[in-house]
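Example record

One chain of 67 residues, shown exactly as stored in the release files.
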Amino acid sequence: MYITEKIITNLKQKTEAKKIAQERALPPGDVLHAIIARDNNLVLITRDKHFKQLEDITPYHKPEDII
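Predicted structure tokens for this chain:
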């Protein structure tokens, strides 16, 4: 049993991430991670403050909140 899974992003996700990143002045990689989490029903765990601005895409949790 694996606890990791390879996820491949698609052009639609990358385009959406770039657009949102420009609109909100955020790093495109952060936006892409939020989109990937949303599209794959994943739990996003981070301390990065940028994700506060992405809560409309997917909720995020701090590591200490999960433990």
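Notes: Residues 46 and 62 are 5 Å apart (CA to CA).
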